[in-house]
Specification:
By secondary structure, the protein is mainly alpha-helical. It is built from 4 helices and no strands. The chain is elongated and about 45 Å long. The chain starts with a helix and ends with a helix. Keywords: Membrane, Transmembrane, Transmembrane helix.
Length: about 110
Amino acid sequence: MLLFNIILIIHVSAFLLYLCRLALLFPIKQPAKDKWGLPLGILILCTGIALVALKYPAVNYYKIVPKLSLFLLVGVINGIYDKRPLSRWAYYLLLGATVLAALIAVVKV
């Protein structure tokens, strides 16, 4: 249980750092990409996989599948805007997908 909680804290911290990174880019007209997105995305993915592996028999697939599809959406948008600044619609889509993934994670069903 201790390992699960440590991985969960790392996962939530990386997720909050990504959300703060997006929030700091909000006032900028065409925000430039920084180098924190890829390491944070890899950390979120690896810790998410570890959390699912540790809780395997009792996995909530109705939460995991939408969050994984939102993660793929964020990855595709970041891949499209790899070398150029984010457009406004791409920024709002990233922010919306991130907040929606957070809401899916905390909603108790």
